[in-house]
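Question: Now follow the chain.
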Amino acid sequence: MVSEIYDKEISGGWRSYLPALLAIGGSVLLLGLRLEMGRGFMSDGALMMIALACYILGGLFQLTNLYAPSEMARKIGLWTAALGVFFNLSSWLVRWVTAYDIELEKLRESGNMASPWIFRYVPFANLYDLSLAFAFGAGVGTLFLARRKSFQILSAFTLPLAALILTLARFIGDEFIDLPPVLDSYWRPIHVGVASLSYGIALVCFAIAVMYLIKDKAKIEAMAIWSSIFALGV
């Protein structure tokens, strides 16, 4: 019974990508709503907290499915993870627009009617911004792998880690900072964006590696010891 639940592929071909595609597409639509409503829209911090709650809830349902296999728990965990990715990316996009609006207000107050370059305000200015992108990379990577039912259990490991990243980001603080002129380059969002997303993908790979070690009956104590030695060496 358990093998039937986990080994069966998600039917429909491209439909297996729906959770990830809907999360990304919905974020773009929400960005349009933010542009329409202006500063009165929900803040990026509130969206991030909802994403955090979704990651925690999705991870709990997948853990439940791990110990007590249930098709309902699996589906709830999958779509809750998709909601987490949706709110995670939405938070980052709304933060981008907010940073632009703040700078635009400063220019108008000083009498400058020029419009700033929007790519200058891509939110990669501090650890909070990077954490949002880091968690998004982990979440969307999980969703793309979750197109196979046998891989959806991976969410039980990756979603709690993504939630931990957002929790740390909350303590870091979401203040907007001014970039030094030396970092005012179009290469900055490209370089930092790719790096941040790669961290998220690396987190998913780490979770896969741990799962295979557990599957091969590696001792948890041994993994902890070698990880500690590696951390001390670094």
About this structure: The chain is about 70% helix and 0% strand. Residues 1-7 have pLDDT under 50 and may be disordered.
